[in-house]
From TrEMBL:
The keyword Metal-binding does not apply. This is Glutamate 5-kinase. Residues 278-361 form the PUA domain. The keyword Methyltransferase does not apply. One of its GO terms (biological process) is L-proline biosynthetic process. Its main location: cytoplasm.
């Protein structure tokens, strides 16, 4: 049966740790595996990091630039080089590829999100492997994915993938960074991300100087992807052929079970495309109403508000301790909500001096976060 498979590979796997030069044998093995998967009828997307690392090697820079403009310039050098290498190798496998560079804003605006979705579908229908990266050269700091782990999870959610593979320079997730902690225990399977707290998994430490985010961003990616219904695996970038073995059911790397997928595409955009600008804390009655009753959120159930936001923006709906339970588009600004929180809906016109929406977040604009 054919699947939609998103594979993300990090800089630490694509480049030699000492010189920053391309790890050609790894890239060639990756190209072979992905081409074979494609030719077996699967829909395949590659999310590849490496623009900054490869750009640095090309320009003879020995470390990742800290200055933003310099980093953006270096990425422009590396991205072209990287695509040249991919295109040469994929062409030897008769496999067409496409470059897709995304910024975070492309997923925030509904029209651009839908447009990106359509372009991916078209490319996959044409049997092309899209090679995706963040558009580092134009992305602005405040609106960045920041790391390709998050980007790949959002792409996997956008295209409703069956699998997300996060290929890195360790063979799986451990209870702590295995580089600094030889007693770290391997974690083969995560049924639910809640288990990680009980397993006391530490994600501090970010491997080589070239990787961004370390394990923490991979766990966050697994959270986004699994709650969008995508099975996720963390595995060694050195052995891309393991992807095929994992698809055949072998217990390699760390595998995260998928949660049921939100069937409504617009709700998935609310949950995974938008960037929340505020937090609403809910009382127990409101949590029960939205979680068990499938109801809208009313002002009466909001106990506190954090952040500055306008009506129609995305907010996180949290329990008393700040754990996010749901996300939604809010009908009132933070200023208005400060005035009406805890109050009955029929009191709102008198408090605000005008007739607003009955609900703070309507159930059609509200999605539970697993
Ligand atoms: N709990 C953990 N389990 C495994 N690796 C961890 C853990 N915590 C931190 N790490 C580090 O994360 C690194 C991988 O992240 P990173 O360097 O960002 O890779 P990539 O370039 O593939 O995104 C590993 O080399 C490892 O040192
Ligand atoms: N977009 C950046 C990659 C950022 C990133 O997440 O890097 P990595 O941790 O190596 O996957 C680049 O191409 O250099």
């Amino acid at each position: 049966m054919s699947s939609t498979i998103v594979v993300k590979i990090g800089t630490s796997s694509l480049t030699q740790p000492n010189t920053g030069n391309l790890a050609i044998s790894t890239i060639a093995a990756l190209v072979e595996t992905l081409s074979e998967l494609r030719q077996q009828g699967n829909r395949v997307i590659l999310v590849s990091s490496g623009a900054v690392g490869v750009g640095c090697a090309r320009l003879g820079l020995s470390e990742r630039p800290r200055d933003i403009a310099r980093k953006q310039a270096v990425a422009a050098v590396g991205q072209g080089r990287l695509m040249r290498v991919y295109d040469d190798l994929f062409t030897t496998m008769q496999q067409p590829i496409a470059q897709v560079l995304l910024t975070r804003t492309d997923l925030v605006q509904r029209s651009r999100y839908v447009n990106a979705y359509r372009t991916f579908q078209e490319l996959l229908d044409l049997k092309v492997i899209p090679v995706v990266n963040e558009n580092d050269t134009v992305a602005v700091e405040e609106l960045k994915f920041g790391d390709n782990d998050t980007l790949s999870a959002m792409v996997a959610s956008l295209v409703e993938a069956d699998w997300l593979f996060l290929l890195t320079d360790v063979d799986r997730l451990y209870s702590a960074d295995p580089r600094s902690n030889p007693d770290a225990r391997p974690i083969p399977l995560v049924q639910h991300l809640g288990e990680l707290a009980a397993l006391q998994v530490e994600t501090a430490g970010s491997g080589t100087n070239w990787g961004t985010g370390g394990m923490a961003t991979k766990i966050e990616a697994a959270r986004i992807a699994t709650s969008a219904g995508v099975r996720t695996a963390i595995a060694a970038g050195k052995y891309p052929a393991n992807i095929v073995k994992i698809l055949q059911g072998e217990a390699i790397g760390t595998q995260f079970a998928a949660q049921p997928r939100t069937p409504n595409a617009r709700k998935r955009w609310i949950a995974y495309g938008l960037i929340p600008t505020g937090k609403l804390y809910l009382d127990r009655g409101a949590l029960k109403a939205i979680c068990e009753g499938g109801k809208s959120l009313l002002a009466a159930g909001v106990t506190a508000i954090e952040g500055q936001f306008e009506a129609s923006e995305a907010v996180q709906l949290c329990d008393r301790s700040g754990v996010e339970i749901a996300r939604g588009l809010v009908n009132y600004s933070s200023r208005e909500l400060q005035q009406i929180r805890g109050r009955r809906s029929d009191e709102i016109p008198a408090i605000l001096g005008y007739l607003g929406a009955d609900t703070v977040v309507h159930r059609d604009n509200l999605v539970l976060i697993q």
